[in-house]
Structure formats: structure tokens, C-alpha cells
Amino acid sequence: MEIDDADRRILRILQSDSSLPLEEIGARAGLSRNACWRRIRAMEAAGVVRGRVALIDPSAVGCPLTAFIHLRAPHPSPDWVKTLAEVTAPMPEILSVYRLSGDLGFLLKAQIAGMAAYDSLYQTLISRVDLAEISASFVLENLKDSTALPV
């Protein structure tokens, strides 16, 4: 799908507050309600807009600690990557799993209640996935955290 300036305006608005009524989104984007609705639907159908979610304060729901977990596979293979994906998929505390270039291999982002929750997560990972190395870094202060892409 070709994204034009009007689509970009809509995307910036949706990224800041997707709960706005169509009339408000259209007014801010300089479009009629119907034109705005058609563009949003087209972007959803094309997969540009993958979903609309609420952003929740982790501390308010009992998981204030962010952990970045560094993994290295003993012998990386497509089967090992598939196993990691299958093990982590049903774990709600693991928010992201990345395969990286360089020495590190894989990076997981987890949102957890505290060190006891991290230890439980750690024990689960080492019991279900063959690992050459695992370590973690914990966020002490969040200086910036955004979901908005530069459109």
C-alpha cells in the first residue's frame, strides 16, 4: 500500500490516541469523517495498522520490573529458534523476542513483578530451552519508552 501525507497524519493521530472518535481524527487530519474511515479501513486491510491497544502502566498491574534477557544458543539452528518461539509464545511476561546480529544471539524483553518472578522465568527458560548462555539486565530508570513510529 502506498502511504500518502493524509495517511501519515492519520497514523500519527492514531499512535497518540486511537480511542478518538472518527470525527476528531478526521478534523485533526484535515479530512471528512468518511474519508478518514475509508483510509483507516484500507490501512487495516493492508496490515499497516495491525491493531489498536490500550497502553497500561506496568506498576499499576503488579509488574514494575523490566528485564532484558540475553540468550545464546549452543548450536543455532532453525529448530532451536522454533523451540524458543514455541516456549516463549504462551508466556505473557515475555513481551518481545528478538534474533540479533552479532555475538549476543537473542534478546527477550520481559515485564515482571520482581526478582522472584525473574527467577521463576529463568528456571522455566533453562528447563525448556537448551542454552549456551543466559544473562539479564534490569531497567533502573526508564528515560524514554514509546510505541509511536516516525511516520
TrEMBL record:
Keywords: DNA-binding, Transcription, Transcription regulation. InterPro entries: ArsR-like_HTH, AsnC-type_HTH_dom, Dimeric_a/b-barrel, Tscrpt_reg_AsnC-like, Tscrpt_reg_AsnC/Lrp_C, WH-like_DNA-bd_sf, WH_DNA-bd_sf. The keyword Transcription applies. It comes from the Bacteria. Coiled coil: none annotated. The keyword Transcription applies. Residues 3-64 form the HTH asnC-type domain. This is Lrp/AsnC family transcriptional regulator.
